């Protein structure tokens, strides 16, 4: 058995390694400086061009447009989520007819622009006005707001269905085997075992889809819906001041940043049991 008779003398701190200046680091510094200069110029432009009269006149319209954008996106996301579940189940089905019908729906709405889908709903369905009046649906499709919500719903349902399908398939098959071994009914096992785990996997892609939908919702302004972008176009047509679009960009950025932090909190809350 041995023991130390003397203490090890203190050693000097290791020498700091100075990283050499490389071309990539220099390019990064220049890029960051450029964006910082651009941000400073934008702030200066906003402060220097501040017009209280325009703010008083068009500020309430911007708030109204913001409310319209949030309502359209919220309703579309919820309705799309309801529609995505049967679509995802059809994609997972062994029935070839259901599988191919769901695949065709998802393929079409993910492969075509949202703007084209919006025009097909708003302008295309107008050609079937007598048939829609006969079944009592013309009141819905003659309104631009309802058409915008409908087009965004069927679009996001296709994306959410693929997100949900991939998340369900990512759950280990052993979870299903364990449920079968315990005699749990498949519907109950899917609802209480498979779906909660799949939702955690799909949480981040869902957040990305909502953010993309918020930015994509600006297309409804083309069919006369006075959302945030629609009110911005109205203000620009009266003032011809490009700062109206700058304020719209700030509003959209604020919405996305708030949603990003909210989604991060939800993700941390739901996955707290996975952290060590």
State the order of secondary-structure elements, H for helix, E for strand: HHHHHHHHHHH
Biggest sheet architecture: none
SS summary, helix count: 11
**Overall radius of gyration:** 27 Å
Rough shape?
flat
Stretches with pLDDT under 50, minimum 5 residues: none
Structure notes:
76% of the residues lie in helices and 0% in strands. The model has no long low-confidence stretch (mean pLDDT 88). The protein is flat. The relative contact order is 0.11. α2 (52-92) packs antiparallel against α3, α2 (52-92) crosses α7 (144-170) and α8 (173-181) runs antiparallel to α9. With 276 residues, it is an all-alpha fold. The longest helix is centred in the N-terminal third of the chain and has 41 residues, at 52-92.
How would you briefly describe this protein structure?
This protein is an all-alpha fold and 276 residues long. The protein has helices at 23-48, 52-92, 96-111, 114-124, 129-134, 138-141, 144-170, 173-181, 186-216, 228-239, 243-270. It contains eleven helices and no strands.
Tag the structure with descriptive keywords.
single chain; 11 helices; about 280 residues; about 75% helix; mainly alpha; about 0% strand
Task: Give the SSE layout.
Layout: H1 23-48, H2 52-92, H3 96-111, H4 114-124, H5 129-134, H6 138-141, H7 144-170, H8 173-181, H9 186-216, H10 228-239, H11 243-270
Helix pairs in contact: 2-3, 2-7, 2-10, 3-7, 4-7, 7-9, 8-9, 9-11, 10-11
């Amino acid at each position: 058995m041995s023991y130390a008779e003397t203490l090890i003398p203190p050693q000097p701190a290791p020498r700091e390694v100075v990283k050499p200046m490389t071309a990539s680091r220099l390019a990064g510094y220049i890029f960051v400086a450029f964006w910082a200069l651009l941000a400073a110029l934008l702030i200066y432009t906003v402060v220097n061009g501040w017009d209280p009269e325009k703010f008083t006149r068009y500020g309430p319209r911007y708030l109204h447009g913001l409310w319209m954008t949030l309502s359209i996106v919220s309703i579309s996301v919820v309705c799309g989520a309801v529609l995505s579940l049967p679509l995802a189940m059809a994609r997972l089905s062994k029935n070839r007819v259901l599988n191919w019908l769901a695949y065709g729906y998802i393929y079409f709405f993910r492969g075509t622009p949202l703007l084209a889908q919006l025009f097909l709903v708003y302008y295309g369905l107008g050609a079937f006005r007598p048939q829609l009046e006969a079944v009592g649906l013309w009141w819905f499709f003659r309104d631009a707001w309802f058409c915008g919500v409908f087009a965004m719903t069927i679009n996001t349902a296709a994306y959410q269905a693929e997100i949900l399908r991939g998340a369900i398939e990512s759950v280990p098959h052993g979870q299903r085997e364990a449920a079968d071994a315990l005699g749990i009914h498949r519907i109950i096992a899917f609802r209480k075992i498979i779906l909660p785990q799949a939702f955690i996997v799909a949480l981040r892609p869902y957040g990305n889809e909502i953010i993309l939908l918020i930015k994509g919702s600006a297309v409804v302004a083309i069919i006369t819906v006075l959302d945030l972008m629609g009110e911005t176009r109205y203000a620009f047509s009266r003032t011809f001041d490009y700062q109206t679009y700058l304020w719209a960009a700030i509003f959209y950025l604020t919405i996305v940043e708030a949603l990003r932090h909210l989604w991060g909190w939800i993700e941390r809350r739901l996955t707290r049991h996975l952290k060590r």
